[in-house]
Design a protein that fits this description.
With about 400 residues, the protein is mainly alpha-helical. It is about 55% helix and about 10% strand. It has 23 helices and 9 strands. The strands form 4 sheets. Strands 5-9-6 form a 3-stranded antiparallel beta sheet, with helices on both faces. The protein has a two-stranded antiparallel sheet with strand order 1-2. A two-stranded antiparallel sheet has the order 3-4. α10 packs across α12.
């Protein structure tokens, strides 16, 4: 058994197949992938890694299994899935996941190809564990897959408290002890036991508060968009293929971006925190539906048209269109008066948080500071945005004020 000191959960005891998996190259690679990607450009202490997080997920999964009375081979498969659940991540975590998936067809939770060969396959075979069943758990399939990837999963519990701890932002604080103690299986569904509507709400509220302050902070979004654009340039130039990028770590990708002439300027700006500024920051109600729902190729075409209209280098225009607001946690299931119900039907808080999500949604268009006025005007013309004049006129003032944060 290995005992590891963790900044969030104190001492974590790792044993069995999970202990043997720790020192495999695929798991050790997670030490070199930051949990929050470019968020450290906002919060300097947010440099914790996917390795730490995986240990935390393992710890909470072990506690949940103990409370649920699940033992033996079933428990070992879940613990293995907890340790391995993030090995499919690309560099900088979610920052370039969509880009890599467009080229490889694989998202971070599709890991079967990584489990059926090499050192991980050897370790799993040594413990008589089927890698395809572990991969299914990582994807959230089956009854016990809900513990690893679902609305009440231990993955979410760990990253909220860990991200809050390392950013210094208190909003992600949740009672993980109560959450794992109150988990139950009812007719194959993972639920919270009777009397835990507020417990479920705390998970929902923590995520809702962390979104605008950490995960969707405007500097985090700008730097993420620049990293994505630089990686696109790397792939388009033949500097690397998507399969290779998928298995890089943060350092590998950073070096590749610096060494490729087509992506070097993006790498320099990220290295120096010489980031683009907001030319447009538009609310959902001001953006036509066809733009909100645009796919990658349509967004790229809009960027080219905006650059042409503004008479700037195409690399100077980055259009950042988030997905429509959604709240998966609202489908969490809780027992109320002996009946399993969705949280969204029991909590008045859900409706308020949904409205807040819509109000916080922003379309962003980013450009070098000297081009923001031209790019902003061109964006309004190309996209047909009906923005309040005040929002456009004070664009520079907003950038100057919030960039101090």
């Amino acid at each position: 058994m290995a005992t590891i000191k963790d900044s969030v959960h104190d001492h974590i005891a790792v044993e069995g197949v999970s202990e043997d998996l720790l020192d495999t190259p695929a798991v050790q690679r997670l030490r070199r992938i930051k949990q929050l990607g470019t968020v450290e450009l906002v919060y300097p202490s947010a440099n914790h890694t996917r390795f730490e997080h995986s240990l935390g997920v393992y710890h909470l999964a072990t506690r949940a299994l103990d409370h649920l009375g699940i033992e033996g081979k079933r428990a070992e498969r879940v613990r293995a899935a907890a340790i391995l659940h993030d090995i499919g991540h690309s560099p900088f975590s979610h920052n370039i996941e969509e880009l890599v998936a467009r080229h490889t067809g694989k998202y971070h939770d599709e890991v079967e190809d990584l489990l059926t060969g090499g050192e991980i396959a050897r370790v799993l075979a040594l413990h008589d564990i089927d890698p395809t069943r572990v991969a299914a758990l990582v994807s959230g399939d089956g009854e016990f897959g809900q513990l690893v990837s679902g609305e009440l999963d231990v993955d979410r519990m760990d990253y909220l408290v860990r991200d809050a701890h390392h950013t210094g932002v208190p909003y992600g604080t949740i009672d993980t002890g109560r959450l794992v103690r109150e988990l139950r299986f009812v007719d194959g569904e993972l639920v919270l036991a009777d009397g835990n509507v507020q417990t479920a709400e705390s998970l929902l509220l923590a995520r809702a508060l962390m979104n605008p302050v950490v995960y969707n902070h405007h500097v985090a979004r700008i730097s993420k968009a620049m990293l994505r654009r630089g990686t696109e340039a790397l792939l388009s130039s033949g500097g690397a293929d998507a399969g290779t990028v998928r298995r890089m770590d943060d350092r590998d990708l950073t070096v590749a971006l610096r060494d490729c002439p087509d992506s070097a300027e993006f790498a320099r700006r990220l290295d120096d925190r010489d980031l683009y500024k907001r030319a447009v920051w538009a609310e959902l109600r001001d953006v036509p539906d066809d733009i909100v729902d645009a796919d990658h190729d349509e967004i790229a075409a809009f960027e080219r048209d905006i650059a042409d209209r503004a008479n700037v280098d195409p690399d100077w225009v980055v259009l950042d269109v988030p997905s429509r607001p959604e709240m998966r946690e609202s489908t969490s299931r809780v027992v109320v008066s002996g009946e399993v119900r969705q949280l969204g039907t029991q909590s008045t808080l859900v409706g308020a948080l949904r409205r807040a999500q819509h109000e916080q949604w922003r379309l962003g268009v980013y450009a070098p500071e000297e081009a923001t006025d031209r790019v902003g005007q061109a964006t309004e013309e190309v996209l047909g945005l009906d923005l309040d004049a005040l929002v456009v006129d004070v664009r520079k003032s907003i950038n100057a004020t919030l960039d101090e944060f």
